[in-house]
Specification:
By secondary structure, the chain is of the alpha/beta class. The chain has helices spanning 3-27, 63-76, 112-122, 140-156, 166-172, and strands at residues 32-37, 53-59, 80-83, 97-103, 123-134, 176-184, 194-201. Keywords: Methyltransferase, Transferase.
Length: 209
């Protein structure tokens, strides 16, 4: 077992445990047909309001992670359709889902801007993006520290970028903010403690003239 194989589960489990209250409130907002990016081991599944959900599509290319996710879906009473794909190229029709979900995924995708554009494409006008991710810290000195440790952090922790400026990417995207907050989660390494927790909206189509 490599050092990265040992370290990643420890840091990952700690982060996810600390984030559970925020995750639960965010995921409960999902409605209709849901696309979950990086569904992973299914930690979101128990937080969906099944009375408000029609269908859940989970994007997850990792078979080992999905084996755990499938079990959690069963326990949550969700029939989740898994698709083996990546966020930069979603095999879904335009405007085909009501809610897109991204939690602890954008730190490790190849192209965050492309992923945000793809999610915007597949969400219906008026639909929502529910997102929780650790991002570039609001304090400049800590953001500099994040940048400094990124090469080693990525190598040890599955390609994770500790301080991506995702807030800037969202601001530059076509997503409209609805309810966005920044939370510094206590008990986490400062490198990954600063989180964006938000709900974004795809603008409704203009009325025909």
């Amino acid at each position: 077992m490599s050092f990265g194989d040992f370290l990643f589960p420890l840091v990952n489990d700690l982060a996810l445990r600390k984030a559970t209250p925020y995750r639960a409130r965010l995921i409960a907002k999902a409605r209709g047909t849901v696309l979950e990016l990086g569904a992973g081991s299914g930690l979101n599944f128990s937080h969906y309001d099944r009375a408000q959900i029609e269908r859940v599509v989970g994007i997850e290319p990792d078979d080992t992670m999905w084996a755990r996710g499938e079990e959690r879906a069963r326990k949550a009473g969700l029939d989740v359709e898994r698709i083996d794909a990546f966020g930069e190229d979603l095999p879904l029709d335009d405007a085909s889902v009501d809610t897109a979900v991204s939690t602890f995924v954008m730190c490790s995708v190849r192209d965050p801007e492309a992923v945000l554009a793809e999610l915007h494409r597949v969400v219906r006008p008026g639909g929502r993006l529910l997102i929780m991710e650790h991002v570039r810290h609001e304090k400049r000195w800590m953001a500099s520290c994040q940048q400094l440790v990124t090469p080693v952090w990525k190598r040890c922790l599955g390609g994770c970028h500790p301080g991506r400026p995702l807030q800037d990417a969202l601001e530059a995207s076509e997503w409209e903010p609805v309810d966005v907050d920044f939370v510094d989660l206590p008990g986490l390494p400062s490198i990954v403690s600063f989180h964006l927790v938000g709900e974004y909206r795809r603008a409704s189509s203009p009325e025909p003239s």
